[in-house]
Amino acid sequence: MLQHRANTYAIIFVNITICLSVVLYRLVDADTGLAKVLVIQSYAILSLIVLHSYAWFKQGGSDLSLGYLFFLMVFIFNGGKAILFVFFPEYEEPYFTFFKENDYQILARAYEFTYIGMLVISIALLLNADYKKIEEVPPTDIELTAAKITALLFLSVSFPAAVYDLQSMLMKVISGGYFALFESEQAYGASGIVKVLGFFLFPSFYIALIAFRQTKWLIYCILIFAGVFTAVKLAMGARLVALVPFLILLSLWDVTIEHVKRKLIYVSGLFMVAVVFPALSVLRVGDKLEEGGGVGHSVFKIVKEMSDSMSPLAWIMQRVPWEMDFQYGHSFLLAASTALPNLFWDAHPAQKGSLALWLAIEIDPWIAAKGGGFGFSIFAEYYLNFYWFGLVLLFLTTIFISNMSKVKPNAINTAFCFSCFLGFMLWPRGELVAVARFILWNVGIPWLCYHFMISALQRYR
After folding, report:
1. Which SS3 state, helix, strand or coil, does residue 308 take?
2. Is residue 121 classed as helix, strand or coil in its secondary structure?
3. pLDDT value of position 321
4. What integer pLDDT is reported at residue 185 of this predicted model?
5. SS3 content of the chain, % helix, strand, coil (to 5)
6. Is the distance from CB of 250 to CB of 265 less than 8 angstroms?
7. For residue 281, which of 293, 267, 265 has the smallest C-alpha distance?
8. Burial code of 68-79, b = ≥16 C-beta within 10 A, e = fewer?
9. Which is nearest to 155 in space by CA: 193, 190, 197?
10. Measuring CA to CA, which residue among 67, 134, 117, 139 is closest to residue 404?
11. Coil, helix or strand for 359?
12. Which pLDDT belongs to residue 172?
């Protein structure tokens, strides 16, 4: 264990040294050769990913750990440009959505903030990692019965709602393409309730997976249904919202049911990158596949599209605090307000204060009016609220996320904690409002129901 700690500290020291060297290089070469600065920053980011992964696996970490997957998602959506600068330097297409190559000064600063933010997340995950296996404590009969009732209750209402909502989404995509999902008017009344109830589906799957894990045919049915939902959503052009719930299910399966075969996962991942994602890009934006482009060109397109969450940060850093002031935690307060239902306002304050909506209106009102946008990012939100001091809060936040990703002695608690990552995984390319809303409602309500059932069963007995 001491040897593992020593290796971890050594890797952290090396990463910090590389980071300080790169920052010093940017400061020295601030006015000339900024294009070269971006390339050097890219190499540093990729070295951070490699060294973090080495330390993670060396200390016994899993490649399906939700903490590790969260770190990779932060990299892909915010620092993924490093792959383009290092492996695709011959491509002349612009790497950023609403920035030109002559904006190197602001891009280098945003890239640096992203790099340091990823380093902070890496340090927090490595320092908070556990080195010993958790001994499982079987749930009591009352806890198991309460979990079964909770799972069946929410499955009974969420499964039909999710199927109906999926069918409605599929018809919209068939008739109007991927962006028809955003151009349609917001659902109110019965249709809105159906969509909300459908969000309980995967938390219900996770609880049922643990509550009924002795019933093999049932848990395999859950796996099949989850796979079908994932495949249909992928076919409609959705990537993140389709894959994340299924990855969480695989992670929970891996630590509570049986070890998932990695060869199948890696082969499926390569197939996604080489075949599925390029086809989805065609569906999303309507482009044609270029003849002779090959897998390399497809990978370039995918990474370019998925890694653009650094652009909102660059846009924020260009204007804050010179044209607008910091928010000083305002968006975090809005996230906390999502605990209150929308009973007192025409539109919930969290909806009115959405950072992603505000950014879309500021940059392109036409796209915003169509329901599209440029997303946001975890780094843009921390910078907008707290400047560089936000990195301290980012460290503490990562510690909390890391604790939620750990296996608990009681597997039912593990299912609830893993359900929270349906929200956490939205944050790398979104904002805290969406994260908090999902956790407080779609995970919080089943959790309250589960504990209410425990209390009721204890009184009955």
Report:
1. coil
2. helix
3. 83
4. 43
5. 75, 0, 25
6. yes
7. 293
8. bbbbebbbbbbb
9. 197
10. 67
11. helix
12. 73
Buried b (16+ CB within 10 A) or exposed e, 415-440: bbbbbbbbbbbbbbbbbbbbbbbbbb
Query: What local confidence, expressed as pLDDT, does residue 181 receive?
Result: 59
Q: Which two tokens stand for residue 251?
A: 């992670």
Q: Which residues of the chain have pLDDT under 70?
A: 1-4, 30-33, 92-94, 97-103, 131, 174-192, 279-295, 342-353, 369-372
> What does the alpha-carbon distance between residue 1 and residue 4 come to, in Å, rounded to a whole number?
5
Angstrom CA distances, 355 to 181, 221, 361, 375, 384, stand at: 20, 39, 10, 8, 10
Is cis: bond before 446, omega within 30 of 0?
no
Taking a C-beta distance cutoff of 8 angstroms, is the pair 80, 306 a contact?
A: yes
Residue in this structure with the two tokens 């109830």, named with its chain if needed = 197
Helix, strand, or coil (residue 69): helix
- Quote the CA–CA distance of 193 and 66 in Å, as a whole number: 30
Which residue stretches of 128-276 are H helix?
A: 141-176, 180-183, 189-198, 201-211, 216-235, 240-256, 262-271
Residue indicated by tokens 């992603």: 356
| Token digits of residue 208 | 């049922």
Q: Which two tokens stand for residue 403?
A: 């604790």
Looking up tokens 């695709």 gives 88
The token pair at 26 is 């940017």
DSSP run (H or E) holding 331: helix 330-337
Nearest to 445 by CA among 339, 335, 337, 344: 339
What is the reported pLDDT for 190?
A: 44
* Residue reference for tokens 């959790």: 447
- Before 138, cis peptide (omega within 30)? no
Helices (H) and strands (E) in the chain, counts: 25, 0
pLDDT the model gives residue 457:
92
